[in-house]
Amino acid sequence: MADWASTGDAYATSFAALCAGAVDAVLDEAGERTAGRRLLDVGTGPGTVAAAAHARGWTVAGVDAEESMIATARRLNPGIPFRIGTLPGLDEPDDSADAVTANFVLNHVPDARAAVAGLAQVATLGGVVVVTIWHGTTSPLRPLWDRVLDAAGLDRPAGSRLPAEPDFERDTTGVAGVLADGGLDDVRARLVSWDFAFAPEQLWSGVEGGVATMGGIHRAQDVATRARMREAYLRITAEIADPVDGLVHVPHSAVLASGMVPAAGGVLG
């Protein structure tokens, strides 16, 4: 898994826009499944979901395991409380929220079922938990990154999966099963899709800031190799950018799943 230490600002100005593609669907799902108006966003990053929920009238708080993400979220969203919190044992009171959201969080934890149980633990009885995770095991950006690494003379990273026991399929059936195993009822899952359009320099700033797997690879190189990576990236993105808007367009899909916390208890602890 990627090392996210000290990447808050770099993530906020680059890859956060990618994950923001699912935010409206997440909040629509939460609003459809609960009449309550308290929302806790877990793995909030720079506060994208929390800010959007606040704009919709929710009473919002956000938690994240990484200190730089919390610092960035507080700077960007001064009217929203943000604090450090790590799944599965969130230091939050039970019954903290009517809706608990986790946008692209389950792909960053070693045990997704335990994480779901942790999300459910801080929701009110009868509340809703909404999660997203990338559909499939290969990022749609992977072909771009592979071309960059090949051009720079670097090895492509090996694919990684969890150990067999905690692993699950990254499809609607697999993610729904994780929520059910985590103690949620009335689970449903569907695909959401959007076009991620980015300015090449903007996304590369995230790589240079150490964000995600590609950022970790970049961090490990010497100055000359980093320069080769940048040159290759700018050349390749210039080839594939839209000639009208100058942006690179890459379709993405995610599994969006939600489940209800049993009104009579029963969440795994």
UniProtKB/TrEMBL annotation:
The entry's keywords: Methyltransferase, Transferase
Pfam families per record: Methyltransf_11
UniProt keyword Transferase, yes or no: yes
Domain Methyltransferase type: 40-131
Record-linked SUPFAM superfamilies: S-adenosyl-L-methionine-dependent methyltransferases
InterPro entries, per the entry: Methyltransf_11, SAM-dependent_MTases_sf
Entry GO MF terms: S-adenosylmethionine-dependent methyltransferase activity
Protein origin, superkingdom: Bacteria
A Gene Ontology BP annotation from the UniProt entry: methylation
The keyword Methyltransferase belongs to this UniProt entry's keyword annotation: yes
Xref: Gene3D superfamilies: Vaccinia Virus protein VP39 (3.40.50.150)
Signal peptide: none
PANTHER family: TRANS-ACONITATE 2-METHYLTRANSFERASE-RELATED
Protein name, entry field: Methyltransferase domain-containing protein
